Fold this sequence. Notes:
The chain contains 19 helices and no strands.
Amino acid sequence: MQQLSRKNQLLVGFTLFSMFFGAGNLIFPPQLGAQAGVQTWPAMAGLAISAIGLPILGVVAVVRSGSLNTLASRVHPLFASIFTILIYLSIGPCLAIPRTASTSFEMAVPPFLPAGTSTTWFQLGYSLIFFAAAFVVALHPERLTSRLGKILCPLLLVLVTVIFLGCLIHPVGEYGPALAPYDHIAPVEGFLTGYQTMDAIAGLNFGIVIVLNIKALGVTRRGPVLHTTIRAGVIAAILFAVVYSMLAHIGAQSGSVFPDADNGAVTLANVVKAIFGPVGSVLLAAVFIIACFNTCVGLISSCASYFHTLLPRFSVPTWAAFFAVVSMVIANAGLNQILAISVPILNILYPSAIVLILLSFLPASLQKLWAIYPVGIAFTGVASILYTLQDLKVPLFGLDALLSSIPLADVKLGWVLPAVVGILLGAVLSGLRPRTTE
């Protein structure tokens, strides 16, 4: 029968949530709450769009299309190759996978060391163990439902709930005033903060792994696989909304008490220590290790599976080992360095990923307009690159004034209008000429 039981459907939803919920998902909602203060919930509305809605749509879009490469090929085969590789590298060994180890290390080891102790060798040893364990589990991506969905995800939810309940019973403070940039159009800033979770581009990666798990449970036909994926996405979205809300509330209470926290990880550490004392450090370490490990496994699995399709002469275990080793080296650069590097890269990739996902849900009649994808993505990509260069203070030879005059540029969404113009222009150029669809 091509339909999962309620129990297995729930487990697939838990697995999808576990694969997404890692370092960024733990550190950015409390950071948002600490900075947004009384504007926390408007900011959370924006975060929900970019860090919940778009990631789930990304998974569904890939499953509907068959693969990320197939979806991106609607723009152009060359774009598909380059974009897909960039997506997998950024969400994989270059940024997201190393961040899982560096974030969990900072929460799991330094708090238990004597003050002033050098952490260099400790971090190296931790990353060796962390990536070795993740590599072993990632060797069987079709078994992630039994390992992540049944065990680690429920445990993670229980631990986060314990911290939240402690914050309700013994609040550390009150919501403070909104700080920059959340004091100005908080929902937009929340939307931009969602970029940093990397989940919209992670969703483009995770489709292939979720399909493997669904098929391993006996659902193999295309239609039922898609329906099962959508239901799993709804379950994951509900879990995200609940957990993000708890973390944002924790952060919002801490802003007035701990205003100097460098990032969301420090914010959580301050709150948990204030409520639970020394036991809190153990509790928080467990939360970060489980969440980051889950995501690390999912990312290694999806990256290894994809690059095996590119270069099948190297087996999936070989690719998994390669990505684990590279990620281990990069992870030792530290969390703040990884976060600093990730911002410009995500500002370039995210807009095109968003537009690609949304275009995939256009009605079939519009999908036949052959120029919508290439022209829409071209306008989006050029705009996002130019705005990123402008943010990096790179001379643009007179384009700065033009870029600054485009609507929404003042809230870092200047790419939106070029994207809309590109899509409309693509529709005009297409005329009545149909194009072949997958």
